[in-house]
Design goal:
about 100 residues, mainly alpha, Arc Repressor Mutant, subunit A, 6 helices
Amino acid sequence: MRLRLSFGDWEYLTFQFKKRMPDFNSIMEGAVRALSLTEQRVCMLLLLGFKNKVLAALLHVTPQRITNLRRRINSKLFGDASSRTLLNNFGWEEDDLV
């Protein structure tokens, strides 16, 4: 699966996401400096319910890279070095993913 999102596509997706999920904004406000753009996108796509394989396709990386990114995000935001608990720390369950 090869998908190519333009910069404008990402901007629109980010705008719509923040408008519909204001709680995410409060978490991300302090984290923007801590998270890379790719890490921010992974957070957003995870909370939209995408699984690692789809995230990997959208971001043009391997599923293992997504797992590593999830681990780094979780460590930066919540002080938890596990990739499996990231969604739980956001208040979601893995079963919520598409």
